[in-house]
Amino acid sequence: PVEAPRVWAVDLNVRDSSPHLAREAARRAARSVGKSRRIFLKVDSGGRGPIGALVEGVLEGAGARAIVIAPAHHCHSAVVVDGRIDHGGSVTGRHTDLTRLNPSGEGTRPPAFVIGRAIVLDGPDALARRIAKAIDDGATRVVIDADSDRCLASIASAWLRLDGVILAGSGGAT
To answer: What's the pLDDT score for residue 161?
Structure first.
């Protein structure tokens, strides 16, 4: 008999918190999970809250190589196009450019690597290879475009082929 996967869920409840508090909460939670576990960071598909701080905190706490960011939730008209959250054809306001997540709101950091929809639709093997290459080339944040269940399934399946990589997404990726 195959044992069902065990899931440990932690509600950080930090959407309205400062970036500093969100980063600390994510770091502590990821550290408590341990390096041998897979981590899925639930973020808001609308781009609300301190997503950059959560991403940095979970990366620090888990000691992971990288994080894949794919918060599309097409059932709620939230898709990711060119690394930006798009709601029904109009890109939403502030905090939607996932390529430039900046936890402190100050300074600059290199943009995240973006993987377009065409590669996602090539299937999970091709996508996993592309993510791995981006990470091997130095990317620590990889944003993936998605606009359908097929895209989300490919992303989730590709993630399961990668070690030491966190997945951040909305409820649409679960």
So the answer is: 95
Q: Calculate the CA 63 to chain-centre distance.
A: 15
Q: What is the pLDDT of residue 103?
A: 56
pLDDT along the chain (174 residues), means of 10: 68 90 94 82 83 91 92 69 68 56 57 90 97 95 90 94 91 52
Q: How far apart are CA 54 and CA 127, in angstroms?
A: 24
Block residue for tokens 């973006």:
114
Are the beta carbons of 88 and 60 closer than 8 angstroms? no
CA-wise closest residue to 70 among 42, 102, 94, 32: 42
Euclidean distance between CA atoms 112 and 69, whole angstroms: 9
Radius of gyration of the chain (CA): 15
Q: How do beta strands 90-91 and 84-87 pair?
A: antiparallel
DSSP 78: E
Do residues 116 and 155 touch, judged by C-beta distance below 8 A?
no
Q: 113-142 burial string, b = 16+ CB within 10 Å, else e?
A: bbbebebbbeebeebbebbbebbeeebbbb
